Amino acid sequence: MPKVKAKRQSVSLDMTAMCDVAFLLLTFFMLTAKFRPEEAVTITPPSSISEKPLNSKEGLLMVSVSPEGGVYLATDDQMAREFMLERMANRYGIAVTAEMKKNFMSSEIVGYPLGAMRQILSMKPSEAKDKGLTKGIPIDSTNNELSYWVGYAKLSNPELKVAIKGDQNANYKVFADIVATLQAQNINIFQLVTGPENKPK
Fold first, then answer.
1. pLDDT per residue over 47-81, tens digit each?
2. Rounded Cα distance, 192 and 194, in Å
3. What is the pairing mode between strands 71-75 and 60-65?
4. CA distance linking residue 60 with residue 148, whole number of Å
5. Global pTM?
6. Which of 85, 110, 119, 166 fits 73 for a cystine, CB–CB 3.0-4.6 Å?
């Protein structure tokens, strides 16, 4: 007598819990992700085989150099940014309104001489950039405003790490002036940002 085969039943999985977990993870990553900070100019750094990442747990102070030699300053420390604005405005006798402060804090980049601060901060950062008003911070020997910006940033947060990101076609003299400015502020340890390059075999 032949055996009676049990009828096969299709297996069904309830994916509701899996969908919930997926959407929770997606929401978490979207809310905690940090957007890439804006750049004043497009910079192509020189290549290097170094694989050491930028250490910015305590905050990062980035000095950027454009291909034309313009110098820009950026930091991710909001308290240091506010402190820099207050001190620089007081130093040069600039009355900062609430709107000017809001425009300054909404952009991570400083890239203009102090003489143009009132005009630039009275407009949105994107508008100032479109009008070509952010041409860089003066660093010449007679008017080295970068020294004051860096000094006030480090005064606000002495733990700030300093990095220099320069375009590969920028003039070497600008780099030398930046290094001299940092050394004048007793900042002798800083990182150079480079592009990735494969190690030689």
1. 666 666 666 667 888 898 888 888 999 888 889 99
2. 6
3. antiparallel
4. 17
5. 0.72
6. 110
